[in-house]
Amino acid sequence: MNSLWLLGFSASAIGMLSGGVIAWLFKGWQKGTPTIFSVCSGMIFGLVTMEILPESIEIGGWFIAIVGLIFGYFIYKHLEKVSHHVIIITNDAKKDLFVHSGLFLTFT
Predict the structure, then answer these.
(1) Residue-wise pLDDT tens digits, 23-61
(2) Distance CA 50, CA 63 (A)
(3) Contact 67, 96 (CB under 8 A)
(4) Closest to 38 (Cα-Cα) out of 61, 62, 22
(5) Which of 16, 18, 17, 36 is nearest to 26 (CA)?
(6) Contacts by 14-22, CB closer than 8 A, 24 or more apart
């Protein structure tokens, strides 16, 4: 039971890494990148709704699961707001956006 979190963390990390590798391989195809991001986001959303949420309801009950979802939402909104105060100095607005997105993903 103690190593279960490590297994879940590893599976999530491998999934996100493989999505990033796929996005990197297709980086020249600007039209395909949003599609790849959408697929990766859908996979992560599926993991949360099909695996993590039912287990949290089973372990802590409905009240704790809902409180956790609400708390996570407010943390997400706060991090999103704070990320706009980070100043990135590059010559390209696209690079700034990528750095902001990477920073945001680091904290979520």
Answers:
(1) 677 666 656 666 666 777 777 777 777 778 888 888 889
(2) 18
(3) no
(4) 22
(5) 36
(6) 15/40, 15/43, 15/44, 15/47, 16/40, 16/44, 19/43
Which residue reads 């990135």 in tokens?
Answer: 88
pLDDT category at 21 given cuts 50, 70, 90 is confident
pLDDT at 101 exceeding the cut of 60? yes
Closest CA to 51 of 89, 98, 4: 4
Half-sphere exposure of 94 (CA within 13 A, CB side): 1
- List, as one string, the DSSP characters of 48-94: IIIIIHHHHHHHHHHHHHHHHHHHHHHHHHHHHHHHTT-----S-HH
Given a contact cutoff of 8 angstroms between Cβ atoms, the answer to whether 104 and 77 are in contact is no
Per the confidence metrics, is the pTM higher than 0.85? no
pLDDT tens, 60-72?
899 998 998 899 8
Give the HSE-up count for residue 41: Cα atoms under 13 Å, Cβ half-sphere.
8
